Amino acid sequence: MFNLIKQDIKCVFERDPAARNIFEVVTSYSGVHAMVFHRINHQIWNLGLKWPARFFAHLARWLTGVEIHPAAKIGERFFIDHGMGVVIGETAVIGNDCTLYHGVTLGGTSWKKGKRHPTLGDNVVVGAGAKVLGPIELADGVRVGSNAVVVKDVAKDLTVVGIPGRVIAQATEQTDDNHQRKEFAKKIGFDAYGMHNDMPDPVVNAIDAMLDHIHAMDKHMQQMCTAIKTLGAEVDYADLPDLGPCEIDKAVTSETEPENKE
Q1: 3-state per-residue secondary structure call for 232-246
Q2: What pLDDT score does 87 carry?
Q3: What angle in degrees, to the nearest 10, is found between the helix axes of 202-230 and 176-187?
Q4: What pLDDT, on the 0 to 100 scale, is given for residue 256?
Q5: pTM for the full model?
Q6: What CA dihedral angle connects 22, 72, 131 and 198, to 10 degrees?
Q7: N or C: which end of the chain has fewer CB within 10 A?
Q8: Residue 101: partners with Cβ closer than 8 Å, 6 or more residues away
Q9: How is the chain split into domains, by residue range?
Q10: Alpha-carbon distance 3 to 115, whole Å?
Q11: Selecting from 2.40.420.20, 3.40.630.10, 2.160.10.10, 3.40.640.10, what CATH number does the domain 2-167 have?
Q12: Do residues 84 and 30 touch, judged by C-beta distance below 8 A?
């Protein structure tokens, strides 16, 4: 037990750059305090002393703001960052090297006895305010975004976001369509690619669809101009104008400033 507590304290320095020394961590980190209480309460629970374990768990909740049922099974190097509002249910199982942020709930969805809380594999990170509910399993390396609500199993190394939680699609190979979209967006001075391409953002998805549509129309326009030229007509077809911020600023300035008269 004492070795587990020692590892819980040591892992803080790996995951919180604000931690400066052991004395500070031991005296001012509520997540560490909650884990010290839980390690002891879990031992008391396993000895069959159910009521004392629940009483000290209740006391720990009052002191730290973290509620952990003494029957919950928690692996090595577990870190609760900030701590306040974390709830871990009775039948929850947490692997090694996991991290929970404030406001996380590992809760149940049934009033029946038996397994009703989540199982987390190794190296799982659950963001602030997220809710993982029911007897589901989050495999090794899973990441849960802040405020997500997860009610289904999640496979290894995937990321879950949103309500209800949905898995972010894996990065796809660079196709010709994706390359053309990106180049066309760059040409007209738009850049939606500062964001993660796999994020399920409906605005970015809508803009991507618009860029695809504009690019297709641009190709058709070029074909029409070529066909008209073969008939002997003159077509003045120029490249798309540069809509970069510098050109826009120049245009606005030239319109707003009065002309100098000698």
Answers
A1: CCCCCCCCCCCCCHH
A2: 93
A3: 90
A4: 46
A5: 0.62
A6: 70
A7: C
A8: 80, 81, 82, 126, 127, 128, 129, 130, 146
A9: 2-167, 176-256
A10: 28
A11: 2.160.10.10
A12: yes
Measured CA angle at 161 (ends 158, 163), to 5 deg: 135
The DSSP annotation for 99-151 comes to EEETT-EEE-S--SSS--S-EE-TT-EE-TT-EEESS-EE-TT-EE-TT-EE-
Which residues are within 8 A (CB) of 5 and not within 5 positions of it... i.e. 6 or more apart?
Answer: 35, 36, 39
Three-state DSSP state, 5: helix
Q: Give the separation between CA 4 and CA 67, rounded to whole angstroms.
A: 19
Give the residue from 203, 131, 133 showing the smallest Cα distance to 161: 131
Residue segments in the chain with a per-residue pLDDT below the cut of 50:
171-173, 188-197, 243-253, 255-256, 260-262
Structure token digits, residue 189: 């001075």
CA gap 100, 102 in Å, rounded: 7
121 neighbors 140 (Cβ within 8 angstroms)? yes
- Residues pairing with 119 in the sheet: 93, 137
Amino acid at 18: A
* Residue 29 CB neighbours (<10 A): 23
Q: Average model confidence (pLDDT) for the chain?
A: 78
pLDDT of residue 229: 78
Round to whole Å and give the CA distance between 69 and 90: 5
Q: Which two tokens stand for residue 173?
A: 């190979």
DSSP classification of residue 62: H
